[in-house]
Design brief:
The structure holds 2 protein chains of 2 kinds.
Chain A (H helix, E strand, L loop, with lengths): L1 H18 L42 E7 L4 H17 L3 E7 L2 H14 L5 E5 H10 L16 H6 L1 E2 L2 E2 L2 E13 H6 L8 H11 L5 E4 L6 H13 L10 H15 L12 H9 L3 E7 L3 H7 L5 E4 L9 E10 L5 H11 L2 H11 L6 H4 L7 H10 L2 E2 L7 H17 L4 H16 L2
Parallel strand pairs in A: 1-2, 1-3, 7-8, 10-11
Antiparallel strand pairs in A: 3-10, 4-5, 6-8, 6-9, 6-10
Helix pairs in contact in A: 2-13, 8-9, 8-16, 9-16, 16-17
Chain B lengths: L1 H7 L5 H27 L19 H8 L1 H33 L5 H7 L2 H4 L2 H11 L6 H8 L13 H29 L3 H9 L4 H29 L3 H6 L11 H11 L3 H31 L1
Helix pairs in contact in B: 2-14, 3-14, 4-5, 4-9, 4-11, 7-9, 9-11, 11-14, 13-14
The chains are: A alpha/beta, B mainly alpha.
């Protein structure tokens, strides 16, 4: 009898092993990040001099691992380049980078945090910064870096309760991209207001071409692209059930109702949206700075240009970008040593230019894109770019907002009730 | 000493043979499950995952998720998804198995080929179906329009009602080979003489199916259905890639919602609670399966 019970128990467990994949979520011991590290930094070349000549001071030594999520080959190569340069300059600190896919990045950080297996530096999406800072996995580096010349938006995103938990890596923002030929064919000027945008989008919609789209995924990416409408009405991200919030949702609805905005945009990433645009399926889109290098190399002959996002009451854009954060309890000295190098003017410029980013340091940004009118639009838009959060519970707020515009776009609810529902969630998170 | 000797008499020694497996399962399966159960009774969120006190809050997470509209929707979806998938997978798989049981030319080759959907990585299948169900350029709308079944494109993946149909269709396609193969194997165990003598006695094809095939296949059918239930109930990647639970949460399953709570929204304890509900249901089904197979062995 005992044997039977044991056999049953074991086979029950074997069976559940097959299906416990989800059951084990956050409690599982962290597996090695399951990604092909496509761009492992090569070790420093062997010409390095004996140890005593080391440039690294303050006792910084040892290995430093960086996690990042850029999938674009150009971005990976740029990071690899500065790492090799840093490793070649001194031989105390050896930096290595590891690619973790964006879809897995937050999961790996959470799992790594609970298992105590984290890298020394992470380069992460800035709206998530506050969450991880609140979790306590980032080192307080308030006195280590001078961020007084940085734009306030990016600095805010690294700050929690007045302390600095990271350094802005670089910023990007959103603008309106338009296909010059399609607008000309439809006899339209570049729209500057919502009404004009609706009008131009409707006129440029024909055949397989939609007039306008932005990524409308039900996640952070979608929220990022939707929020400029709300900010443009003068309302904040926490005031969806307000005159402005509802107006923004109604505007979205009018675009969809006019047939000018593809409902499928709710399944498009920003990259997908850009691909639709360069394939000639979209006359206009909202997208970010980082798409420019790709667009210039993929479709060098296409006539496109950029303009500020059409506005309601005021000009507004979304602030995106990444921050560097140092993991608390890791090789903090080594990590800070690398970050000092990475944020120095020349290195920073190299990264920004190769990645199509705007430096978060205004002194570097202001002469970054001299003579490039396309980038200049982005740099100008930076002063109107709003940050999301910072709030540790931002992902929940973001989810409520993205649910609201998804309901409106799919026709599941009308703008007023979608806004009311989102507000209930937001208020409960903010503890109102 | 005598006691030890007694212990090794009969086949108690067998216990030692299963010890490695037992330890392995305890550590790699038992531990995560237990730690997940503990997590679901705590209040772990973004604020206290690493530092800070993790308080035990009893069943608060469970009572919260059962009041959560998205959870209830996900629960209903999971059941609907599982039942719909099982039904179609099984029926189509069964018919195909009967077909391939006839020894026509290429029967074996084609039966082998039908395994492809089962072997293909889930993500690839999901992407393929995502393209096929796309509104403007998808082949499914194209076929429906060319055959004049519809005049307007159906917005498969962007309308709450139809998105579920699309993910079910994708999963049915994946699951058919599993059903076909298991039932085919089951069919080969039925002695051919039974059919021959039934035919001599004047039973027609339908009678042979209902009176011989189905009763003799019963153990196989039970296994296929229960295993199919387990495989389908825990589907995650297919839905995640095709719809991410959208549009407007209409295709969230317990698995995708649990992931979203834990890793997108940092509500670890709530995510664990959802996962445990999923786990509990599957455990019950798993027990049922064990009961069925053990009964088979005793016969």
């Amino acid at each position: 009898m005992k044997k039977r019970v044991l056999a049953t128990l074991i086979s029950a467990m074997m069976l559940t092993a097959a299906l416990a994949g989800c059951g084990a979520s956050a409690g599982t011991p962290a597996p090695a990040p399951a990604s092909d590290a496509t761009e492992e930094a090569a070790p420093a070349t062997e010409e390095a001099a004996p140890v005593e000549e080391a440039a690294a001071s303050e006792g910084a030594a040892g290995d430093v691992t960086i996690w990042y999520y850029w999938e674009t080959a150009g971005h990976q190569e740029a990071l690899d380049h500065i790492i090799q340069e840093f490793n070649g300059q001194q031989d105390q600190v050896k930096v290595q980078a590891k690619y973790v896919p964006f879809a897995d990045f937050k999961k790996q950080l959470s799992v790594g945090a609970s298992a105590g297996e984290l890298p020394d530096i992470v380069i992460l999406d800035n709206p998530d910064h506050a969450s991880y800072a609140a979790m306590g996995i980032f080192a307080d580096i308030t006195d280590k870096f001078d961020v007084s010349t940085y734009y306030p938006g990016p600095v805010n995103s690294c700050t929690l309760d007045g302390r600095l938990y990271g350094v802005p890596f670089g910023s990007n923002d959103l603008v309106l991209f338009y296909n010059e030929d399609m607008l000309k064919d439809a006899g339209c000027e570049v729209p500057t207001t919502w009404d004009e945008l609706l009008d131009v989008a409707t006129k440029t919609t024909k055949g397989n071409v939609y007039g306008f789209a932005h990524c409308a995924l039900q996640n952070e990416e979608g929220t990022f692209n939707f929020l400029p409408w709300v900010w443009s009405t003068g309302q904040t991200s926490y005031e969806i059930n307000s005159e402005g919030g509802i107006k923004a949702l109604e505007f979205e609805k009018s675009l969809v109702d006019a047939g000018a905005f593809p409902k499928e945009a709710i399944n498009w990433t920003q990259g997908d949206t850009m691909n639709q645009f360069i394939s000639g399926n979209l006359a206009m889109m909202i997208n970010g700075t980082w798409q420019i290098p790709t667009m210039r190399s993929e479709v060098p002959d296409m006539h496109w240009n950029v303009a500020p996002i059409p506005q309601d009451k005021q000009q507004a854009s979304g602030l995106g970008g990444e921050n560097y954060a140092v993991i608390a309890g890791g090789n903090e000295d080594g990590a800070i040593e690398f970050l000092k190098y990475a944020t120095s003017k020349d290195t920073c410029l190299y990264m920004m230019d190769h990645m199509g980013y705007i430096s978060s340091d205004s002194t570097i940004a202001k002469d970054q894109f001299q003579g490039d009118p396309v980038y200049q639009v982005f740099v100008d838009e930076m002063q109107y770019a709003n940050a999301r959060g910072p709030l540790p519970e931002w992902p929940d707020i973001s989810d409520a907002i993205s649910l609201a515009f998804n309901k409106v776009i799919t026709g599941d609810s009308d703008p007023a009730s979608a806004a009311a529902e989102a507000q209930t969630t937001i208020d409960s998170i903010l503890g109102k | 000493m005598k006691r030890v000797k007694n212990f090794f008499r009969y086949d108690n020694a067998g216990l030692f043979f299963i010890l490695p497996a037992f330890l392995y399962m305890m550590f790699f399966v038992g531990y995560p499950i237990i730690s997940n159960i503990i997590l679901s009774f705590q209040n772990v969120s973004v604020r206290n995952l690493v530092n800070g006190q993790k308080k035990f809050i009893g069943f608060a997470n469970y009572s919260e998720i059962f009041q959560d509209a998205v959870f209830r929707k996900a629960m209903g979806n999971t059941l609907l998804f599982t039942v719909a998938c099982l039904l179609f997978q099984f029926l189509i798989g069964f018919v195909l198995a009967l077909l391939f049981n006839k020894n026509f030319t290429f029967a074996k080759t084609i039966r082998g080929l039908t395994m492809i959907p089962w072997m293909m990585p889930m993500t690839v299948t999901a992407l393929m179906f995502k393209f096929m169900f796309s509104t403007d350029v998808g082949i499914i709308n194209y076929i429906l329009r060319s055959s004049h079944l519809i005049s307007e494109n159906i917005e498969w993946l962007t309308t709450p009602g139809t998105a579920m149909i699309a993910v079910v269709a994708a999963n049915v396609w994946i699951g058919i080979p599993f059903n076909t193969i298991l039932i085919s194997t089951g069919l080969t165990t039925i002695p051919q003489e039974l059919y021959e003598s039934a035919a001599v006695d004047g039973a027609n094809a339908w009678q042979r199916l209902v009176k011989i095939t189905l009763p003799l296949l019963r153990p196989t059918i039970e296994s296929v259905l229960v295993l199919g239930f387990i495989y389908t109930f825990k589907v995650y990647d297919l839905v995640y890639v095709m719809t991410e639970g959208g549009p407007v949460n209409s295709t969230h399953l317990l698995s995708t919602y649990s992931y979203k709570l834990s890793f997108d929204m940092f509500q670890y304890s709530k995510g664990a609670s959802v996962a445990n509900v999923l786990f509990l249901i599957l455990l019950l089904v798993g027990m049922l399966y064990l009961k069925i197979t053990m009964r088979g062995e005793e016969d």
